[in-house]
Design goal:
The chain has 96 residues and is of the alpha/beta class. The chain has one domain (7-41, 48-88): Transcription Regulator spoIIAA (2-Layer Sandwich). It is 38% helix and 27% strand. It has 3 helices and 4 strands. Strands 1-2-3-4 form a 4-stranded mixed beta sheet. Strand 1 and strand 2 (14-21) form a beta hairpin. The longest helix is centred in the middle third of the chain and has 16 residues, at 53-68. The termini are far apart.
C-alpha cells in the first residue's frame, strides 16, 4: 500500500517522515516536527515519496535547529527530488 498522506513521528532518536513532503505537508508538519525535535539524531526519509522546495525548507530548518541545539542529525534515505533540490540550493548531505 502506498503512503499518500504526509506524516512525521518520533521513533527513539529519529524523526521519521512519510508521504510527499510538499508545500501542503510542510505547513501541516511544522508544529508536530518542531515539538518532537529535542534530542533528534536522525531524519528518516525512507518512506517519503517526493520532496519539493517547501519540503526541503522544512527539513533544512529542522536540521538547522537541531544543529543549534548541539546535534548533527544524519539524513537517512534519498526520496525523489531531494538530491536535485540540495544541489540547486547548495546544501550538504546534512542539509547545511
Amino acid at each position: 500500500m502506498a503512503i499518500t498522506e504526509a506524516g512525521c513521528r518520533r521513533d527513539g532518536d529519529a524523526l521519521v517522515f512519510a508521504g510527499a513532503l510538499d508545500r501542503t505537508a510542510a505547513g501541516a508538519l511544522w508544529t508536530q516536527a518542531s515539538a518532537a525535535l529535542e534530542g533528534v539524531q536522525r531524519f528518516v526519509l525512507t518512506s517519503v515519496t517526493t520532496v519539493d522546495s517547501a519540503g526541503l525548507a522544512l527539513l533544512a530548518e529542522l536540521a538547522a535547529r537541531a544543529r543549534a541545539a548541539g546535534a548533527a542529525p544524519a539524513i537517512e534515505g534519498e526520496p525523489p527530488g531531494l538530491s536535485d533540490l540540495r544541489a540547486a540550493y547548495r546544501l550538504t548531505s546534512g542539509l547545511a
